[in-house]
Amino acid sequence: MLLVQSTGSDEALRLNASNEKLSSDVKETAGMDNKENGSVDTKNPVENGQLPDPAHWAVSDVVNYFKAAGFDEQACAFQDQEIDGKSLLLMTRNDVLTGLSIKLGPALKMYEYHVKPLQTQHLKKNTW
């Protein structure tokens, strides 16, 4: 299970990089499962304060990530469009704002506070 600390708003999730226990009122989990489409098991906890590489996420992992981030209603758009981790990493701002049929406010927050940082994290890890 992936442990994330919710800020109680639509802002980016803050990851707990230390080994300290999170208080029970801010602890949420987003299950990351193996899927038939070849996704890798990503049930490992957050390592070094960062999420597992989204390139290995299945569609359900992407949906669970956004649900844990507080975007329950909008997460289904990723399911409907079959957005897995690799697709998520390829998405542009315009894709999120117009291609998912999500209201503009949540779409902007999802892209700026979640999609873009995940893309940056992936690039930093996989670029020499």
From TrEMBL:
Residues 22-38 have a biased composition (Basic and acidic residues). GO terms for molecular function: chromatin binding; histone binding. GO terms for biological process: negative regulation of DNA-templated transcription. It holds the Pfam family SAM_1. Residues 14-52 are annotated as: Disordered. InterPro entries: PcG_chromatin_remod_factors, SAM, SAM/pointed_sf. Residues 57-105 form the SAM domain. It comes from Acipenser oxyrinchus oxyrinchus. GO terms for cellular component: nucleus. This is Sterile alpha motif domain-containing protein 13-like isoform X1.
